[in-house]
Amino acid sequence: MLFAALTFAFTGCDKPAPGPDTPPVEEPDPTPDPTPDPDPDPTPDPDPDPDPEPAKVPVADLLDVVFSQDGSAKDVSANKMPVTLVDSPATVTFWDEDRQMWVSHFNHAGSDVTSGYYKCDYSKGDQTDRTLSEGFSMETLFCIDKKSDGALEWKMFSAMDSGGLGFLISKTARGCALTFLPSITTSGSNNYIWCSSQINPEPGRYYHAVGVWDKAEGVTRIYVDGELKGTAASPGSYFPQKNANAYWFAVGGDSANGKCNSGWKGDVAIARVFSKSLTAEEVKALYDASYKEKSTSSFFCIDDINFVGDCTVAAGNKFCIYGNGFAAGDKIRFESISDRSKSFTCETVIESGVAKAVIPATFASDSYRIVAVRGSQPYYLGKATISFGTGGTDPAGVKVVAHRGLHTTAPENSVAALKAAQDINVFGSEFDIWLTTDGRCVVNHDSSFSGDSHVIQNSTYADLASVRLSNGEPAPTLEAYLAQGLQKPAVKLVCEIKTHSTTERNHACFDAAWKLIQDRHMEDQVVWIAFDWDLSNYIHSQAPSAHVQYLCSAESKLKTPAEIKAAGISGIDYKTTIMDAHIDFFDKCRALGIASNVWTVDVESDMIKYLYHGADYITTNKPVELQELTKKVFIEK
């Protein structure tokens, strides 16, 4: 608003000099405007260059994962996708004070895992795929625990099983960089678009990433911390995953059939999917709403972590956590998962490759986050359910059984796989036999050899003359297996008789095998296993001194340790799912003096669990890894 000013003109006289009590006289405007505004406007002039309205923070409509205190998670988007934690001691949530939210932490470092990740199921698939087909965006906020060396792909949030979309840190050949990877095709087949940010994330720092596929423009974009970091031409159509068993987004890795690939090591705070192509302004709004700087000055990482995830301890026991990166002065803190106010910071003994937390007398039974603390900086190692009482046991002497031999460099159930198992001095090497119509015992797991149409139990050995394993071996016979077995008698031969078409054929298979073994005086070197209860009893009746273990993978065919003992059978050989449901069977078998075997155990945390609970035998496809774990004590008295 313009105001008219009343002015005074001074002519022909001097101003008096101001004295100590005389206030200074303000100089008049030498060029006053005596003309008032002819049309006064009470409204201020508009800003000639107003700031644009900030973009609204977009809301994820397909998936928005929110983690919880107890480790569970849910989709809070309108889509309400089912979210399941496939649990493991290696995955734990923690409260992020800066962001006022629960964050999930993973400890996988690029490996394929069968537990320790979140499964966001969109098995209704077609609807989600149709929505994605018009353009989409993915958002994640993550922190990596160690810098990728490019040897493996690491994926924090992904659904990429021969199609789909997701984020990853690429291998060296692709620049070892944070990359958005949707499959966009013009040919009707899988075609990944490698949209790289050229950033290899630094450990301990949070990164905000958004990947966008703009169908209308035929372009894929990746934004990091609100800024465009990469583009890639991507005309065509979205190509979804084709494996029905992988129709889910993985948080902590990449979806696959029965497992999670390329597991993550670090934090994931946000995992969202939008059914539209976000603009640069919307991406910036997401970044501004979610990002908080995290200082890396005191960050540290513990690698190759293992500990027992379910155990009993007493005051003074040492809870042992194996890992690389512990330093003198580190403490171990147990934080109650259910009650954030309850925690125990333990006196901790740091030795080479292990931190030993001394359990205090005030400890209590609970489920705990296990935290390494260095100064004021925490590092989340995982979680465990711990009972406080009379003290746990850590039984030694488990017997490692190589499942179908050591087949990392040789085909499974081959003579070469048996020799490889003998070379690493396992307790035993497991294999499977069938009986041909002309009385030959043939070694193979399935009823037919791969690529051959002959059903072994319905064929002569001559019918199998053209069979060659991938290493060139002919169809292996029990005779060949026994010949190799004799080269190292200390390694047991764990022989599974497959269930044939009739009881008579089952018995005939054992009879033929038993004669070959007796002829070679190898009775004490062979352990017998079978799924058929009648066959297990038949073996015991024909060879009372033989070691026989009953195989079981179904509750409907379960025999209790007491029933096994009463039948005179030497022990049980049960699938992991059975033993997990009946964990007391280990103690019951030990009390009855019969053996306990569990199969097939390939996950490190499961190996530790069964070692702790005192399995006599563990059958595994990873005997080398299990042998290393058998050297460790997890609860030290």
How is the topology of this model organized?
Layout: E1 63-67, E2 73-75, E3 83-86, E4 92-96, E5 101-107, E6 117-121, H1 126-132, E7 136-144, E8 157-159, E9 165-169, E10 178-180, E11 184-185, E12 195-196, E13 206-214, E14 219-224, E15 227-233, E16 237-238, E17 248-251, E18 254-256, E19 259-261, E20 265-274, H2 280-290, E21 303-306, E22 310-313, E23 318-324, E24 331-336, E25 343-346, E26 348-351, E27 354-358, E28 366-374, E29 377-388, E30 399-402, H3 415-423, E31 428-435, E32 441-443, H4 478-485, E33 492-497, H5 503-519, E34 526-530, H6 533-542, E35 547-552, H7 561-567, E36 571-575, H8 576-581, H9 585-592, E37 595-599, H10 604-613, E38 617-620, H11 623-629, E39 635-636
Parallel strand pairs: 22-29, 30-31, 30-38, 31-33, 33-34, 34-35, 35-36, 36-37, 37-38
Antiparallel strand pairs: 1-2, 1-20, 3-6, 4-5, 5-20, 6-17, 7-13, 7-20, 8-17, 9-10, 10-12, 11-16, 13-14, 14-15, 18-19, 21-23, 23-27, 23-39, 24-25, 24-28, 26-27, 28-29, 31-32
Helix pairs in contact: 3-4, 5-6
